[in-house]
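## retry 2 of 3
previous attempt timed out at serialization; input unchanged, resubmitting
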Amino acid sequence: MYNFRMDRPIYIQIMELVKRRIVRGEYAGSLPTVRELALELEVNPNTVARAYRELEREGIIRARVGSGSFVNEEKVEELKKELVKEAFEEFLLSLKELGLEKEKIKEILEGLYD
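## retry succeeded, writing output
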């Protein structure tokens, strides 16, 4: 069972989950069917279908009637960069919320890198 947060729509969280799984290579080419993923996540199949439609609209997956949904391999590298950027922005925001200034953040990061 997947623990969804109640502060954001579930279909968006499913989209994010699918994106992470694509980047990790868990969906080598094809995605699980809407019904399979709905059963795994214990959600309504319509919610998964909406997530898949949005992922298709973004060009991340391609749906073929009767064949299923497939990863658009041309988008995987772009997706990786997008997810890294989002993670890094969240990380920087959390450091700024601690009251750290830009120079102090750079100093800490350089120290960790060395």
